[in-house]
Amino acid sequence: MFHRPNLQVLNLYGNTNLSISFPKDNWSSPLKQLGLSSTNIPIDLPHLVKCFQNLNALFLGNCHFTRSNDLLPLSNLTKLTQLDLSFNNFSGQIPWNSLNLERLTFLDLLNNMFVGHLPEICTNNSTKLCFPSNSSNDQLEVSLPLYLETLYLRHNLLNGSISTWLYSLPSLKYLNLAMNQFTGSINEFHSCSLEYLYLNQNRLHGHILRSLFQQVNLRVLDLSSNSLSGFVEFDQFSKLNKSSCRIREFPNSLSILDISDNQLQGLVPIPPPSLIIFSISNNQLTGNIPSQIGNASPLEVLDLSNNTLNGSLPRCLGNFSENLRVLDLRNNRLQGMIPIFAKVKSLRSLHFYDNQLEGPLPQSLLTCKKLGVLNVGNNKINRSFPNWLESLPELQVLILRSNRFYGPIGDPTARFPFQKLRIMDLSNNDFTSHLPRKYFESLSAMKESHGGEFGYMED
After folding, report:
1. How far, CA to CA in Å, does 342 sit from each of 208, 296, 387?
2. How far is residue 85 from each of residues 15, 54, 183, 381, 403, measured CA to CA in Å?
3. Which of 90, 210, 237, 298 is deepest in the core (most CB within 10 A)?
4. pLDDT at res. 445
5. How many CB atoms lie within 10 A of CB 374?
6. How far is CA 377 from CA 163, 329, 436, in A?
């Protein structure tokens, strides 16, 4: 195969049972792209580099290396622009001097065990990066990766602050530093090329800077599980200096925003109308849920849980477009009635657990034929058992615990109630009479084992 004179691209990804032998003689291939990710082919990196010196793309994610942690031979691939070494359990410092950063556009090192700090710009040469040698006290230098578009360092053991040069790369589109131990604050981004930014599950602190919302091409922003503080106000879009990224109109590309599990304060910010997923749960938000939140018509997931929100639920929550799939408001201090859900026919999960809600469950939920989880536990609902829930075809989790429900359970005329129900919690109410035997006869889904699929015990 490798002796074919015109072969330039070879991708064997995912062939776990494939055996292959690289030529052993003094031989060189014209191959330019080689993909061996997720195979069990033994990788002798020095020999591979010797055979394929014309490569500009090399994908070795989740491979079996015969010489662990020896990445120095990569420095001989001087034409390389794309490199994937993910899921290989490499450890120690990242061998920056072996990666030919000057030409790279794509670098994927995620899910390894690399440690240490990111390199910094050299004090005596702003076009070079400096980092300590693994074998001596000397400082090594490499060129700035000015052409880098994608950098994945997710799920390693990297620490220290996020180096300043990352904020200045002119072509960077995808930056994933999640699940490390980075500290310090998030600085200003000086280019406007970012499309995907993942800084979640680190130890970052400080405020969320306005420059993040000036990224006119930004589609996904995940800053969750840090120690970020301060206020988030999306009306700062209206305060942007439009000349700073040549903004002609306000950014409208952001579709996923996750800033949950931080220490953010203030009122619930009104999300941009382009958002599909918005999570700001597990923070320190206060005040009412703004009625304008219903204007985010593309929204599919809205998670405001685990804050200190109060006041009544705005009617607009029941008037979201048909796109809304998950609404999570649990563990707040919300009061009043649950609104009528008239349009949200795609709703699958509805969480009101641990609030102070009263009144009946709105029978309009019958229009939510895809509803799989309904959790209104630990509220003050004072009504009889909502028999009409038995007819919801996809309902799998029903939590009514710790309310003031009363009277008999179930509709005696229903033949096959709760066909897909797996979890039912009716504890700590005022129900009377007998639990219908037909529940145990017809709840066939409860007989199936789906361990851990629904974690519903939020208290």
Report:
1. 36, 16, 19
2. 17, 18, 25, 55, 53
3. 90
4. 58
5. 23
6. 46, 12, 21
Using DSSP's 3-state secondary structure scheme, residue 198 falls into strand
Alpha-carbon torsion angle 449, 451, 456, 457, nearest 10: 110
pTM summary value = 0.91
Q: How many whole angstroms separate alpha carbon 407 and alpha carbon 433?
A: 7
End-to-end CA distance of the chain: 60
Beta carbons of 78 and 119 less than 8 angstroms apart = no
Q: In the prediction, which pLDDT does 68 show?
A: 76
Greatest Cα-to-Cα distance within the chain, rounded to the nearest angstrom: 86
Beta bridge partners of 170: none
- DSSP letter for each residue of 14-29: T-TT-------SS---
Give the tens place of pLDDT for each residue, 353-373: 999 999 999 999 999 999 999
Beta bridge partners of 197: 175, 221
Instruction: Kindly state the tokens that stand for 76.
Output: 């001989």
Nearest-angstrom CA–CA distance, 178 and 261: 14
Structure tokens at 314: 């705005």
The span from the CA of 414 to the CA of 442, in Å, is 11
Element (H, E) at 50: helix 45-51
* Rounded Cα distance, 441 and 418, in Å: 11
Q: Which helix (H) or strand (E) holds 45?
A: helix 45-51
The token pair that represents 418 in the structure block = 């709760």
The answer to whether 442 touches 417, Cβ cutoff 8 Å, is yes
Type of residue at 298:
P
Q: Which token pair is 412?
A: 């005696």
Q: Which strands make up the sheet holding 157-161, listed edge to edge? A: 91-93, 113-116, 157-161, 181-184, 203-206, 227-231, 263-266, 284-287, 308-312, 333-337, 356-358
Please answer whether residues 341 and 368 qualify as being in contact, where contact means their C-beta atoms are separated by less than 8 angstroms. yes
Place of tokens 């795609």: 346
CA–centroid distance for 316 within its chain: 27
Token pair 């074998």: residue: 135
**Nearest by Cα to 188 from 245, 231, 105:** 245
Q: What are phi and psi of 291, to 5 degrees?
A: -65, -25
User: Does residue 218 have a pLDDT over 70?
Assistant: yes
From CA 251, how far away is CA 25, in angstroms rounded? 56
CA–CA separation, 72 and 75 (whole Å) = 6
CB 16 within 8 A of CB 41: no
Decide: residue 124, CB within 10 A, 0-12 exposed, 13-18 middle, 19+ buried: exposed
